[in-house]
Amino acid sequence: MAPVANSKHEPGMDDGTGALTCTLPAGPLHYLQAGSGDPVLLIHGSLCDYRYWRWQIPALQPCHTVIAPSLRGCWPAAGLHPQTGYGVMAHADDLQALLHTLGCGPAHVVGHSRGAEVAWALVRQAPELCRSLTLADPGFRFADEPEVPPFYTQTAAALQRGDTAAALADFVDTVNGADTWRKMVPWFKQMAEDNALTLLSQVQEQRLAITDAEMAGLNVPVLLIGGALSPRKYPQRLDRLQRLIPGAARVRIAMAAHGMNLANPRAFNRALLGFFGNLSGTMPAQGQQAALQSATSV
């Protein structure tokens, strides 16, 4: 697959896939945009792209301008991998430029898994662009944890051998639970296959190491979301974040693992809307609390 050439489209122009393209300093970035109101930036994780948010965009757009980019190097402009410069900090640079170019900000920033790392990097780089921060099963490492090869090192090796099916099954089952890949719906499998080679770049990237002091010093409202059935490392990380971040709200999505926004989208969406509504004053505090409790129990 040949590298994607720079686009001459301006923000708001269709890129041929139904999405929009914004020309940024590092090249074009593809994104979806819908709705009106306070902006919400949705940041996907590994093996995904803007299609990951298919159940969130319709739910959020009546009250919010929803912006869902595909991170650089992901479908529909995946290009060749590994790519130099592919990494969390570069993604955050792109998203900062995207918000500036679109004139959208400050935004409610929502990141899932690796996307939560990107969301954190964006808040650290440009806090003035961030109205709030939502971390859904974040995948980053704390600075006092040992630096070990990522679990998907074996996954990348399988991709290099050309065994894409085994690689994707290994990755998805590791983050979401045994036998998840086999049960996945076709559209999700297609999205993961379209982005499979991004793992060849991801395995080489420099991972962020987060300190307790950085998290404790956050000056934006924070919502922590986890799947009730997520592998143990995710709730442990959320436990630590909740202890560190004063006033952080937390929601546990019932009947869902790591991909909680797909497994239980109603509860996930309710949690976001309740959190955003409380911050904007469009929902009374007790209504926001009810929304969070409902998201936890459904």
Please characterize this protein's 3D structure:
This protein is of the alpha/beta class and about 300 residues long. The chain has one domain (about 15-295): 3-Layer(aba) Sandwich (Rossmann fold). It is about 40% helix and about 20% strand. The strands form two sheets. A nine-stranded mixed β-sheet has the order 1-2-3-5-4-6-7-10-11, with helices on both faces. The protein has a two-stranded parallel sheet with strand order 8-9. Helix 1 (about 55-60) links the parallel strand 4 (about 40-45) and strand 5 (about 65-70). The chain starts with 12 loop residues before the first strand and ends with a helix. Residues about 1-10 and about 285-290 have low confidence and may be disordered.
Mean pLDDT: 89
**Which percent band covers the strand fraction?**
15-25%
With helices defined by DSSP (H or I, 4 residues minimum), what is the helix count? Answer: 13
Q: Structural class given helices, strands, pairing? A: alpha/beta
What does the largest sheet look like? 9 strands, mixed
CATH architecture: 3-Layer(aba) Sandwich
CATH topology title: Rossmann fold
Number of strands: 11
User: What does the overall shape look like?
Assistant: globular
Are there runs of 5+ residues with pLDDT below 50, and where? 1-10, 284-288
- The N- to C-terminal Cα distance equals 44 Å
* H/E series: EEEEHEHEHEEHHHHHEHEHEHHH
What count of domains describes the coordinates?
Answer: 1
Biggest sheet strand line-up? 1-2-3-5-4-6-7-10-11
Helix content: 40-55%
CATH superfamily: Alpha/Beta hydrolase fold, catalytic domain
Rg, nearest Å: 18 Å
The CATH class label is Alpha Beta
